[in-house]
Amino acid sequence: MRSNPMIRKGFSQANAYDGPVMSIKGTRNKTFLLVGITTLISIFSFVLCIMNLYSTGSFSTAYGLSTFGSIGALVLALVTSFKPQLSKTTSIIYAVFEGLLIGSISLVFELYFPGIIIRTMLLTLLAVVLTLALYKQDPSVGGRIRKGVMIATLSVVGVSLIGLVFSLFGIPFIFWGNNLVGIGFSLLVVGIAIANLIVDYDNIALGSEYGLPKYMEWYFAFGLLVTIIWLYIEILQLISKIASRD
Question: Matching Pfam families, A to Z (predicted)?
């Protein structure tokens, strides 16, 4: 398991480390905090975008906050990934940026597809609860699926980058449409995101078992938040694709 890059980042210091070590409980509490911050900021962003929409009739605030939030989140994600020691600070700021992003894009989806936000939130919560129950029932599942999940995730990233290049040149990308292929691809990505939740739970358990430094609680909580937000966005896109076919 030491080959896992997230574990390896902290494990290199664990052998000579005499201070407080991370725990599952500590990581859980920090995850709740980060999710709470993201939720509160997303509500703030949502309301701000609504106020701007009704006062000006434009989506300028939504577009501005989504752009600002996505760029800020990307920068903070890179910093946190390369410098886990800074995760106590960077993960909180990351949660703020993601809140700005989630709130603004959720407003746009909600206006086009009324009721989509509640359905997306419930499905995301259901996925988190069920995968956690599955992992508690059989902790070995994380190790068994780890390699496959990593390959599948990298494949999705590769396909998404190709789609981005296509969009830059105005070329339709079949996986991004609301056709059956596009919906099937979204279902696949949602499944991969859900599988990543199980791997995240396994990372936390392994980190606690290896006695990694206390700051790694923030690092793994950050990793879990990234996956939850990814899952939320993918479910949002999947439901919108299906709804747009009606």
Answer: BaxI_1
- Tell me which H or E stretch contains 216: helix 216-243
Spatial contact of 199 and 2, defined as CB atoms under 8 Å apart: no
> In which region does residue 22 sit, left (phi positive, over 0), alpha (psi from -120 to 50) or beta (all else)?
beta
Pair of tokens at residue 238: 């999947």
Tokens found for residue 94: 């990351």
User: What is the DSSP annotation of 129-190?
Assistant: HHHHHHHHH-TTHHHHHHHHHHHHHHHHHHHHHHHHHHHHTT---GGGSSSHHHHHHHHHHH
Residue 30: closest CA among 221, 207, 228: 221
User: Residue 50: pLDDT above 90?
Assistant: yes
Tens-digit pLDDT profile for residues 193-212? 999 999 999 999 988 888 88
The string of pLDDT tens digits covering residues 211-240 is 888 999 999 999 999 999 999 999 999 999
